[in-house]
Amino acid sequence: MGAEATGGVRAARRRPYARRVSGIGAVLFDFGGVVLTSPFEAFAAYEADAGLPPDTIRRINSTNPDDNAWALFERREVDVDGFCRLFEAEAADLGLVVDARRVLAGLHGDLRPAMVEAVRRCSAHLPTGLLTNNVTPLADQEESRPEVLAVVDLFHVVVESSVVGCRKPEPEFYEGACRRLGVKPSACVFLDDLGINLKPARAMGMATIKVGDPAVAIAELEGVLGIPLG
Length: 230
Known about the structure:
The chain has two domains: 150 residues, HAD superfamily/HAD-like (Rossmann fold), CATH 3.40.50.1000; 69 residues, no CATH class. It is built from eleven helices and seven strands.
């Protein structure tokens, strides 16, 4: 992996860029649901196949979101077996039968080419960070998903919940990224597909963009930065 890692957070690379674009000092991207297709698309397919109500996985994840099985797994406080046991128990508490391993199989999304190009152009102009809640460190995927790791190397700083032991929406997750990039939160714009992750970023002073349709989000980011991204 190209950038140096320090305490689980990849350090800013020595590459020229303009420090500010339209008053913005850095751009922060979520990974799954932003640069990659959303895992909720895979979850929906599993729910349909298993005869589960729509949004079952979202419902389980939104129950006790700071300390449930998913939160513990993203902070690497439980292993795969522990996650599966806890997640299936949480589903059972809601009267549902869920195969946790099939849920985990839906986490690996596909790259969105237009968003990759937006990342590439952003990183040429100003500091760019990747902020991802994940259950497996990206370094462990180097052999199996080289095309994804090539995109990860576009970022100056990468912060992973599975490495640093905290996660979005915990404020220290965002604060660590800003510290590494050498910018204040108020100088950042942050893109995520989940409102729960955008809320604390906004409270810290960041501009935020909720990603649904990638083309719409890219156009909104172009408006914030004042530069073409496609």
